[in-house]
Amino acid sequence: MRVLFVCLGNICRSPTAEGVFRRQLEARGLGQRVDVDSCGIASWHEGKAPDLRSQEAAARRGIDLSSLRARQLRGDDFHAFDYLLAMDHDNLRAMREQAPEGFDAHMGLFLEFAGHSDVAVPDPYYGGEDGFEEVLDLVERAADGLLEDIVARLESRP
What pTM does this model have? Predict the structure, then answer.
């Protein structure tokens, strides 16, 4: 099972989601059964570490994002991942435009897994510290729901 989190630049929201979800998988003993990655629609920050404010907010919750590096969404991602989860509507629209014909993995907003079918994870980049904490709160709730969805899928496999 493979999960890809997608935001605009891959330095705030999607690496935060990747770090939070990795921690949850490890806590449930599923770290070896589910691969997790993140990327951005744009290439502006390719190769760079997550925004320092994202790293600091995550570290306060025991999550280390320092080894992650930004990358751009690639065509082969659509075939490599079972879940492609966008942080907002613009990201989702861009993903849908790039999706190849015959694509059949789950693609949608990440916060659907928190029970919010039409809500986006706000981009904290131009805001204050509170924005990074809000992102973590939202991501943790959605990660709980995603984990339950994945556990159910793994248990239903032969």
Answer: 0.96
Catalytic option among 60, 76, 123, 130: 123
Q: pLDDT tens, 53-112?
A: 999 999 999 999 999 999 999 999 999 999 999 999 999 999 999 999 989 999 999 999
* CB distance 152 to 28 below 8 Å: no
Q: Which of 7, 37, 39, 77 is catalytic?
A: 7
- Encoded amino acid at 82, one letter: D
Pick the CATH number of 2-156 from 3.40.50.300, 3.40.50.1860, 3.30.70.260, 3.40.50.2300: 3.40.50.2300
Q: How far is CA 96 from CA 21, 66, 84, 89, 127, in A?
A: 23, 30, 10, 10, 28
Residue 13 falls in the annotated catalytic set: yes
22 is catalytic: no
Is 123 noted as a catalytic residue in this protein?
A: yes
Q: Among the options 12, 13, 23, 77, which is catalytic? A: 13
